[in-house]
Design brief:
heterodimer; A: 383 residues; alpha+beta; Nucleotidyltransferase, domain 5; 6-stranded mixed beta sheet; 5-stranded mixed beta sheet; 18 strands; B: 141 residues; mainly alpha
Chain lengths: 383, 141
């Protein structure tokens, strides 16, 4: 809403969008506001953007969290537009010609300069004109301390105009929530009573969400997730098949295609090309060991959080354990965790996978939060 | 409390102020009040002041052009003051119990331990959740 100035006055008008910080004389136009829900993940990031006061999604993108700096001496025309910096899939596509750098490791900023480049790219995706005021809700790992949060703010300075940092598991619950069913009597609202397990690349974050903003005691972050499984699988393959020539990226692809937990399944045979020749590798045991290590890491914090719930709420909570993030795609992870809980005597546990939109729930929740945030809740970043 | 250092813009980014006559000082105060109301989200009251009392004062001084520079400067000051207050408030709140005068301290060794504080009723909307989060952040050292 913009208030029109009196007919013959040049008294500056108020921009309703941003309070005093965006106060503008009538001769300047108030900037358009774009809201951004941003899940800056270790391996994959998700961006959702839309205008305030609506339900539209103007931008929806999942992209690898990687920046590629073109190496010196690359022939003109090899990289489209002779770009010097590439992002996401473009960077991976040109991996032979770029130095690939990850902005995030284990859920926190690893390289601030690279993180800023990545955020600038995100800003360009959301607002190609560069004229809009960008208000971003960013997901942070459950255990992110003050220093990690400050790192994110510093990286966002001068790129996003206002930010809110909110723990990722809570955002995942918010994103997963079906708003159209909130008032239905049989609906298990994940924001009212659930336990979310967000298995990402760097960390596995578990969070008890019971109608209140989760405290530090309601959240546990385990530094064992997708990347650790890749490393374990890679080490195992190197042990069984020395000189296999597999890159970490190649191992990750094998995990994403064949990964599972539970009893060993054999044979799982895949063809890989080593030194130009095709070889068949049997991966059943290696995949089982790598996947089951994740179960061993996340099961104890899962039970600790269940035991925090009150006796009035725990039975309903046990029916609403949700796994999201890339790790939710590991075959059998819901069944194995549910069986472990049942075998340990927990009453009728039900563990479910968040579904095909698992990559987007944190960003969906972040955009919901952005649309609900009040003016005075946003943190203004000057610079 | 997080110690996020946010750089302030240089003085050269702020427009030069007009002569400080008593009437102009009054206009500047009005302008600051309008900016503060806008910063707090009370746009209706801010607009009422702007189109009423402020417009009248500016017209009387024939200072339409100078009022633009004034608004830019005062909006800046209010935004900075708000940021500083947000940073300082938790620090001051943390110090308050230690500086309570002796006459206000009550020792009651016989009193039983306070029961665990029951949680307030759950927030009804998402903005209330965010308020809870901000309050938790400010309480966390």
């Amino acid at each position: 809403m913009t208030t029109a100035a009196p007919e013959k006055s040049t008294v500056p008008s108020i921009s309703a969008a941003s309070g005093a910080a965006a106060f503008a004389p009538t001769r300047l136009t108030a900037p358009k506001i774009m809201l951004l829900g941003f899940d800056l993940g270790t391996n994959k990031s998700c961006v959702l953007a839309g205008s305030p006061g609506g339900t539209d999604i103007a931008v929806s993108k999942v992209l690898p969290s990687v920046v590629g700096y073109v190496k010196d001496g690359i022939v003109d025309g090899i990289v489209a537009g002779n770009a010097t910096t590439l992002f996401g899939e473009d960077a991976l596509r040109h991996m032979l010609h770029v130095r690939l750098v990850a902005p995030v490791a284990e859920g926190v900023i690893a390289d601030p300069a690279v993180a800023r480049d990545f955020m600038r790219h995100i800003r360009t995706l959301v607002d190609p004109s560069g004229q809009a005021e960008i208000r971003a809700v960013l997901g942070v790992p459950a255990n992110a301390g003050a220093a990690a949060r400050d790192d994110i703010r510093r990286c966002a300075q001068g790129i996003f105009d206002r930010v809110l940092l909110i723990p990722e598991p809570f955002l995942a619950a918010l994103g997963f929530r079906d708003d159209s069913r909130v008032n239905q009597p049989n609906y298990l609202d994940p924001v009212v009573n659930s336990l979310f397990i967000d298995i990402g690349g760097g960390t596995s974050d578990l969070c008890l969400v019971q109608g209140y903003f989760p405290t530090a005691e309601d959240q546990i972050s385990v530094p064992y997730a997708g990347d650790a499984i890749d490393a374990a699988l890679h080490a195992e393959l190197d042990r069984v098949y020395p000189n296999n020539g597999l890159s970490r990226h190649g191992v990750r692809e094998l995990k994403e295609t064949h990964g599972y937990v539970g009893p060993s399944r054999k044979p799982i045979e895949v063809k890989v090309v080593m030194g130009g020749k095709a070889h068949t590798l049997e991966l059943g045991d290696a995949l089982a060991r790598a996947g089951n290590a994740l179960i061993e890491k996340i099961y104890p914090p899962l039970t600790r959080l269940i035991e925090r719930a009150s006796s009035d709420s725990v039975l309903a909570l046990l029916q609403n354990i949700v796994i999201t993030g890339g790790g939710s795609q590991i075959k059998g992870i819901d069944v194995v965790l549910q069986k472990k809980l049942a075998d340990d005597g927990y009453e009728s546990p039900k563990v479910k996978i968040a579904g095909q939109d698992f990559k987007r729930y944190v960003a969906i929740g972040a955009l919901k939060a952005a649309r609900s945030a009040r003016e005075n809740q946003w943190q203004v970043l000057l610079g | 409390m997080s110690h996020c250092t946010i750089p302030l813009p240089s003085a050269s980014a702020v427009p030069a102020r007009p002569p400080a006559s008593p009437d102009w000082i009054g206009v500047a105060r009005l302008c600051r009040r309008i900016c503060l109301l806008a910063e707090r989200g009370d746009l209706a009251e801010a607009d009422r002041l702007r189109t009423g009392e402020f417009a009248t004062a500016v017209a009387a001084l024939q200072a339409d052009e100078a009022s633009h520079a004034l608004f830019a400067r005062e909006a800046d000051r209010v935004a900075h003051a708000t940021l500083v207050a947000e940073q300082l408030a938790p620090l001051l709140a943390a110090r308050l119990p230690a500086t309570t005068p002796a006459s206000f301290r009550v020792e009651n060794k016989a009193a039983p331990a306070a029961p665990p504080r029951s949680r307030p009723s759950p927030p009804t909307d998402l903005a209330d959740f965010i308020d809870e989060m901000i309050a938790l952040d400010r309480r966390t050292p």
